[in-house]
Amino acid sequence: MLKKILTQGIRLKKRMLWVIAIILLITTAAVASTAEPIRTIAANTWGFGVPFLKSWLPIWIFAFAGGVGSLFFKIEQIDKHFRYLLVAKPFLGVFGALSLCLILASAVEPQPPIMSAYAFIAALLSAPILQGLLAAASISRNHAAFINAVNPFKFKVVVDDKGDRDDNTKS
């Protein structure tokens, strides 16, 4: 079974993104409830703040590991919209996790091991969510449907799907 997961990944349906979002929300609430209010704002000698401190190095490492781990979650309907999936998913996972950790760190100060574990889980779960949002935002049919829904005039926007594809053009 481990060999199958390593070669093919864990196949998920697109509707599982809602479950992943709920799990991420629950873990965020749990981490926030275990922390105490922030006392001081730290900065290093160059004046950089929280994410660039030496104490945040484990959070960066665990966020990167979670981003790499998100490569094993395969969602066929979303993965087909990305060209460089081996770069995109870890990138989205790292910065999704760091943004959630920064939101938590601005209000409360969790313990470093808890924050590192949360960074791993947040990167693992936020990469497919952000990937789905980017895929949905880049589809021209979705743009046309939104414009047609809010359009106060009588004309409709129609999208020619065959004109957007590169494989139909002859060179």
Automatic annotation (TrEMBL):
Protein name, UniProt field: Uncharacterized protein
Keyword tags: Membrane, Transmembrane, Transmembrane helix
Domain of life: Bacteria
Membrane spanning stretches: 56-73, 85-108, 114-137
